[in-house]
Specification:
Layout (H helix, E strand, L loop, with lengths): L15 E11 L2 E6 L2 E6 L5 E7 L10 E5 L9 E5 L21 E9 L2 E5 L4 E5 L5 E7 L9 E10 L2 E11 L15
Parallel strand pairs: 3-12, 4-12, 6-10
Antiparallel strand pairs: 1-2, 1-11, 2-3, 4-10, 5-6, 5-7, 7-8, 8-9, 11-12
């Protein structure tokens, strides 16, 4: 098992995360190849499944949810993830705990005007500036059919009997058979 690490996308305390390339799927069991070895992820009908794909500024619309990250505070966004609101609300992710890292801007889009996105955050509205170098992804609800060999997976849940019992799974297409951030299992 890999040593614990802290990152902006770290799972909440008490959860375990598995990230890597899906080697095989058999029923509700997924074998995942990670940098630190292999892991098993089990899922059920109650597991929240989503798929992440390439997006564009045109996917950012009033009422959608965004998470915007920049390399340095006050700089244009390097990346923007777009998702749909659930029951009129946007989920709030965990804030980074790594010294020197600033929190992403998260919330519901209030307006889009050219390269400026106004986001209603948990605190007050904030402005996100984007450029032609900003990378966009969109996250949408998916079914277990999207969990397939050769895709990248991030699964969160609790470990039981040597397998991760997933409460949430996010999948995306691999790039040349590799996952961009294929970090291993991180116990919390």
């Amino acid at each position: 098992m890999a040593a614990p690490t802290t990152s902006a996308s770290a799972p909440p305390k008490g959860e375990t995360q598995v990230r890597g390339l899906i080697a095989s799927v058999a029923g509700n069991a997924v074998q995942v190849t990670q940098q630190s070895g292999t892991a098993t992820v089990d899922f059920s009908g109650s597991t929240k499944i989503s798929e992440v794909s390439a997006g564009a500024l045109t996917d950012v619309a009033v009422g959608s949810c965004v998470t915007a990250r920049s390399k340095d505070e006050g700089q244009p966004a390097a990346s923007v993830r777009v998702s749909q609101a659930v029951d009129g609300k946007c989920p709030q992710g965990k804030q980074p705990t790594t010294p020197g890292r600033h929190a992403p801007i998260q919330g519901m889009v209030a307006s889009v005007n050219g390269e400026t996105i106004t986001v209603n955050t948990a605190g007050a509205p904030q402005t996100v500036t984007v450029t032609d170098k900003t990378k966009y992804t969109k996250e949408a609800p998916a079914t277990s059919e999207e969990i397939a060999q050769g895709k990248c997976i991030t699964a969160r849940g609790s470990e039981n009997g040597g397998a991760l019992q997933a409460t949430s799974i996010s999948v995306r297409q691999a790039a040349d058979g590799k996952c961009p951030d294929g970090a291993g299992r991180h116990p919390r």
